[in-house]
Each structure stands twice: as C-alpha cells, then as structure tokens.
Amino acid sequence: MTREMEAARGWVRDCTSLCVLTGAGVSAESGVPTFRGPEGLWRQRDPMSLATPEAFAEDPKEVWEWYQWRRQRIRGCAPNPGHAALAAVEAAKPDFLLVTQNVDGLHLAAGSRRVAEIHGSIWRVRCAGCGAEREERSDFAELPPRCAACGGLLRPGVVWFGEMLPREPSDAAMEMLTRCEVLIVAGTSAVVAPASGYAAVAKRRGARVIEVNPDETPVSGICDATFRGRSGEILPVLLG
Ligand code: APR
To answer: How far is the CA of 215 from the centre of ligand 1 (A)?
Structure first.
C-alpha cells in the first residue's frame, strides 16, 4: 500500500465528520454510462443537448425516449464494490453525508441512507402541470407519459441544465461542507456547478480533500491526495 493511501486511510478512519461527493464514474463499474465518456451517447445525441427544459419543451417524446432507454439500462445494473464500501462506512461515522450527482439510485440500492441526491432521481416523475411527484419504476407504455390527475405532461424527476437544485439535498450538502473534516470526491469530472465547487469550499475550511478518478480533473490540484484508478477498486481500500 502506498504511503499516500496509508495517510488517506488514516484521515478517513480518524475523522468523525465525513462527506463524500460522487459522480457518474462511481456507477460506471456497474455498467451505467457516464455523461462525458464515449459510451454516454444515445442515437449519437449528446446528453447535454437532451437534459434541458428547452429540449423537453421542443420534443418531450424524444427526451422521454432517452430517459426510458436510460431507465431500462440502469434497471439491469447492480451496485458495485464502490457503492458497497460507501454504504458500509456510513454506519461507522457519527456525522456522514453522501452527496451524489447520480440519478440512478444505486447508492440507495447498496444500502446508503444518508444520501443527498442533488440532481434528483431517474426513478421519480413530476407533473409539469400540477407538480404532483411520485416514484415510478416501470416503463411507460405511452411517451411522453401524462399525469393521471390533471392530464399534464409528466417529466423525469431530475435536474436539467439551467434548473435549480432541489432545496433540501442542496442545503444539506452545503451545510455538510461547512463542517466535514474529510471530503472524498469520487467519479466526477468536476465541471458542472454547483458540485464542481464543493471541493474548494471544503478545502478553504481546512478539510482534507481526497480524489478518486482515473483522470485528472479541475479539482485535482487542490486535493490532499489523489488516487488515479477505478472507484470500485479504490474506495474499498480507502474506506476499509
Ligand atoms: N471510477 C472512478 N471514476 C471514473 C470511473 C471509474 N471506474 N470511470 C470514469 N470515471 C470518471 C471520469 O474520468 C470522469 O471524470 O468519472 C467522471 C465522469 O464524469 P461525467 O461523465 O462528467 O459525470 P459527472 O461528473 O457525474 O457529471 C456531472 O453533469 O451531465 C450532468 O447532471 C449530469 O450529474 C451529471 C453532471
């Protein structure tokens, strides 16, 4: 084990307040395509051009075809050892929050409970008309689906580009960043705000920041330790 890993394991072991930020890379080893990786494309469409209110307003059926495809892909994916390690460490920490940008629900499926889904969930739908929101795990027969109550268009319960984050998870994340002793940033390209700024917020306060990512990111330079590799392999060692 490298000296850097030994040191980082010590920080994680000795802290009482631990925050973790995850991105699509943590689910990549479960087979869920990342956004900015080559496998993220659908019908050669860039996800960034579909995950917007404008795209939904223009062609709700196409946007739903993309989400239905993603839901079908994710339904067949299981949590990987990285998810399991995060669920396990939560029990050992009096003060813990897992802030995720992922909408796949795999952290909850792995047993994590103190989770802030700041980009929402692909398993939730919300009526664009009356605002009614519910969980819906099965495929829709008709796309775009309609609200049974008011007949309005149902939309995926996720945050699109240009939209505000859901208040409760976003506030919980910001509050945790003001007190965590250690922040682990795993599997995110750190290019989408506000999550891309979380490492700097924690660092400014004197938290130890640890990155787990095969690639360099814009926050790599401010991290106290960086582990270039797959989260499914590194997190079980770091958190074990
Ligand atoms: N282990 C760890 N990291 C990995 C792995 C892996 N096995 N495989 C890939 N990665 C890294 C990539 O190097 C990249 O830095 O995961 C990151 C994935 O980056 P993105 O695809 O940009 O995903 P993410 O950072 O979660 O995107 C943030 O952007 O599109 C929006 O709302 C969407 O939540 C998403 C947000």
So the answer is: 10
Catalytic one of 83, 93, 119, 230: 119
Q: Which two tokens stand for residue 98?
A: 């897992």
Q: What pLDDT does residue 41 have?
A: 65
In this prediction, the residues of the chain whose per-residue pLDDT falls under 70 are: 40-41
* Ligand 1 binding pocket, CB closer than 6 Å: 23-25, 28-29, 34-37, 47, 101, 119, 187-189, 192, 212-215, 217, 230-231
Domain residue ranges in the chain: 1-32+78-119+164-240, 33-76+121-158
| DSSP state letters, 173-215 | HHHHHTT-SEEEEES--S-STTGGGHHHHHHHTT-EEEEE-SS
- The domain over range 1-32+78-119+164-240 is classified in CATH as 3.40.50.1220: yes
pTM of the model: 0.96
Per CATH, domain 33-76+121-158 is 3.30.1600.10:
yes
- Cis ω before 194 (30° cut-off from 0): yes
Q: pLDDT tens digits, residue range 160-182?
A: 999 999 999 999 999 999 999 99
Instruction: Tell me the CA–centroid distance for residue 186 and ligand 1, in Å.
Output: 9
pLDDT of residue 99: 98
Please indicate whether residue 119 is annotated as part of the active site.
yes
Cβ count within 10 A of residue 204:
10
**Predicted local distance difference test score (pLDDT) of residue 85:** 98
